[in-house]
Amino acid sequence: MATKNLSLSQLSGGKTYTEIVFNQVWGKVEAYRASHPQQQLFMMAFGDTTQPLPPTVVRALVEAANRLGDRQTYTGYEDITGNPALRSAVCADYYQKKMDIDPSEVFISDGAQSVSVNIQELFAPDNTVAVQNPTYPSFVEGTLVAGRPLVNLPCREDNNFVPKLPDEKVDLIYLCFPNNPTGAVATPEQLQAFVDYARSHQAVIIFDAVYSAFITTPNIPQSIYEIEGAKECAIEIGSFSKSANFTGLRVGWCVIPQGLTIKNTVPGEVKYPNLLR
To answer: Taking the chain, what is the end-to-end CA distance rounded to the nearest angstrom?
Structure first.
């Protein structure tokens, strides 16, 4: 007999955190708009883009669609790990300039949001998950729906919106830098502390680097793999949505280094496609 996932009760009134927050904010926006009809409003509630796709991207999409419409060039399903050329391009552009990441460690997904939640299924149901607060809502919702214990890491003005290390032992740590929604970034020393914590506690960092292209300050890491030891304990998530106007296309990736191991695994065994088999 099919039964309800009781963890859904963790969501307030059956609604997601996103629905609750945005419904409250939207009500205030509409009230303000009604009382100030001449005032121009700039909506900053969503990390959406305001410009169209670049012409080169549009041409490439048309060419790819045409290839699928020709019997001679039709390919059917792609490799389960993602298009090999795209994996190599992501690796070359984002990682091989500073870090020794191989294309075999890059896995293409339908956007960063899905992989950021699905990645939890690689880990045991009783693993404790730590998240920044505030943070991207899907990290919280995915954890609650999965029934995993949740620990909040407060990000406030008094800590420059960068959380301190967990006071208790946790198994998974979501870090998002530049942070959504605060915009805060972490120094190499701050990230090193989290990597050292993860290695000493056999924890895994899930690092959201979706906004990394907007870091312009020298010596601020754009990737967790710029930190010594991170390849042993961190998974990184990226996307073209913010930097290349891909919000309508849903193309992202995750990096799982060969050297990352968790309990009862050997190097190279932890892979994102395991969730798709």
So the answer is: 25
Say if CB 240 and CB 111 are below 8 A apart: no
Name 118's Cβ contacts closer than 8 Å, sequence gap at least 6: 109, 272, 275
What pLDDT, on a 0 to 100 scale, did the predictor assign at position 211?
Answer: 94
Look-up of token digits 């932890």: 270
Residues 121, 275: Cα–Cα separation, whole Å: 7
Diameter over CA atoms, the chain: 62
Pick the CATH number of 83-275 from 3.40.50.880, 3.40.50.1820, 2.40.30.10, 3.40.640.10: 3.40.640.10
Phi, psi values for residue 173, rounded to 5° = -130, 115
Quick: pLDDT tens for 146-179: 899 999 999 999 999 999 999 999 999 999 999 9
| DSSP state string for 243-273 | HHS-TTT--EEEE--TT---TT--TT---GG
Query: Does the pLDDT value for residue 94 go beyond 70?
Result: yes
Q: Which residues of 82-121 are buried (b: 16+ CB within 10 A; e: fewer)?
A: beeebbeebbeebbeeebebebbbbbbbebbbebbbbbbe
Q: 14 vs 227, which has greater pLDDT?
A: 227
Q: Which two tokens stand for residue 151?
A: 């620990």
**Which pLDDT band, with edges at 50, 70 and 90, does 277 fall under?**
very low
